[in-house]
């Protein structure tokens, strides 16, 4: 077995999607997702994608990254961190030391870092952590010194069963009677909306909201108060056509039903886009999303990191 970078073997990029889907049984990697997490990521460097080759067959891959460009607001704060976006080993070769060899090669290439995180490279991620059903990968990470530091989940929703409950309809009616309004964001106001989200939430969410407006399959619901000020938002189709979120409401306007109203408007928009299976990725808000009709699956992830 030999290890190459994708920079050395660019012709093997077309082999990545089949390997990822064969090796990660709970994931369904599309061309769109693969491109988003590689060449459409402004931080991506093909020299940090390592390919394990044996007898001219691709049997393993590690896609690594450093945050060097975007979001620019967090580049300096994260200059000592690197990420393993994903490691995938062909099922036939899991008994060989491919995982360790790929990880060691990556660690030897990364310079000046004091922490390595797994998967949760915000915006340009395949998944937010390591699926707890992936025992092989969890065990391998742990055996190589990684520690768990948190947990998150994805909600999967079958929109065949989606409907807006009467309580949400009545909530929206009440909010509108109190002067609130809900509408889809336009390109015209995107700069101001992005600035507001950046200030009130995070540069990650601001960038996702911008992406949602720019994507043909995406959109951004905005809630204004009676003074015309933004107090909440909900994005859909930002990173993936069937992903929902992020959702945010300013602290002083919470617990009024604004978030739930925005949630159901975004789900309805996905349904009208022809999406059947929606995913609400990377969340700790168990009860907020459990109100959605048609939840079929919850994926549970461990957040892992290695301190160097």
Level-2 CATH architecture of the largest domain: 3-Layer(aba) Sandwich
Through-space gap between termini: 27 Å
Mean pLDDT: 97
**Which residues form runs of ≥5 with pLDDT under 50?**
none
The CATH class of the largest domain turns out to be: Alpha Beta
Structural class: alpha+beta
The rounded Rg comes to 21 Å
Q: Estimate nothing, just give the exact number of structural domains.
A: 2
Strand content: 25-35%
Helical fraction equals 25-40%
Order of helices and strands: EHHEEHEHEEHEHEHHEEEHEHE
Biggest β-sheet: count, sense, barrel? 9 strands, mixed
Any overview of this molecule?
The structure is a single chain. The chain is of the alpha+beta class. The chain has 2 domains: 157 residues, Gcn5-related N-acetyltransferase (GNAT) (Aminopeptidase); 130 residues, Gcn5-related N-acetyltransferase (GNAT) (Aminopeptidase), CATH 3.40.630.30. The chain has 10 helices and 13 strands. The strands form 2 sheets. Strands 1, 2, 3, 4, 5, 6, 7, 12 and 13 form a 9-stranded mixed β-sheet that branches. Strands 8-9-10-11 form a 4-stranded antiparallel β-sheet, sandwiched between helices. Helix 6 crosses helix 9 and helix 7 runs antiparallel to helix 8. The protein is elongated. The model has no long low-confidence stretch (mean pLDDT 97).
